[in-house]
Amino acid sequence: MDSSGSTQKLENLLLVAVPRDLMDDEVIELRREILQAIRRHGSQVVLLDFSRVDICDSFFGRFIYTTSKMVELMGAKVIISGLQDVVIETMVELGMTLPDVDAVLDLDDALALSRSLSRQYNHLNETAPPDGDIADEE
Amino acid sequence: MAGQSRKDQLHFTIQHVADVSTSRRAGMQMAINMGFAHADATKIAVVISELARNILIYARTGTIIVKEHRGLDGKRGIKIIADDNGPGIPFLDKALTEGYTTSGGLGLGLSGSKRLMDEFYIHSEVGKGTNVTAVKWLNK
Ligand SMILES: Nc1ncnc2c1ncn2[C@@H]1O[C@H](COP(=O)(O)OP(=O)(O)OP(=O)(O)O)[C@@H](O)[C@H]1O
Ligand SMILES: [Mg+2]
Q1: What is the pTM of this model?
Q2: CB < 8 Å to A58, chain B
Q3: Domain ranges in chain A?
């Protein structure tokens, strides 16, 4: 497992621990870090872990949305997890919807999703097998 | 930054992004100390965050006051007053519509805050500034 700052590689998943209070300049910084890490690791799924976040305003909503759009342009996918119950309740009442962003319950589900995506991906590229480890493929 | 004038009243000058997190944290703590449930304290924090951020984006600077509030019938609540001398809002009904934004935002700050609170008043004059006053009651 290779980690730098708040991002961490796990198989083809990129784990991102979203800080509790995300300030404007830090948002830009974190986004850059995510995009660089995707390129470095060839990650296919980015998991934004919100378990440290206890106040989620519209600014946070925009962060999730724009990050997912940028990640999409790199051929990867954003999923989120760890939103606390009261945070979810407040987000919904505020009127925040996150179209195109899937949520998972925990890391296990995130891993399952990224493994299934990587199987699809490897299947599509069967004619030109990637040099990565696909030893556990059936 | 935070200048705490009285125990039951918080006063913040909003002029940097850091003031947004300082004010919402302190407001959330005040709500919890008053006996608000965690979910309601979270909502109060988000409303402070939205109003403080609006001040920063549209008026550059202004103030947020968070204080204990008593209704006519004696019920207790928390009151948030956001005040600025910025450009004002020309079309209030539009600004209160979900999704309406002039800054590429989500357009949720005002409409969402209104939903999160029990009472919500906004007064704005073009060229003079904007005042938002919102109340959440403790025991409904
Ligand atoms: N304090 C203010 N001074 C001047 N105009 C304001 C102020 N607050 C809000 N507005 C106007 O009202 C509109 C709606 O505000 P609202 O907070 O609902 O959405 P937003 O700030 O555009 O986006 P979001 O809050 O979702 O990030 C703003 O786009 C802006 O034009
Ligand atoms: Mg706003």
Answers
A1: 0.89
A2: 50, 53, 105-106, 108-109, 112
A3: 3-127
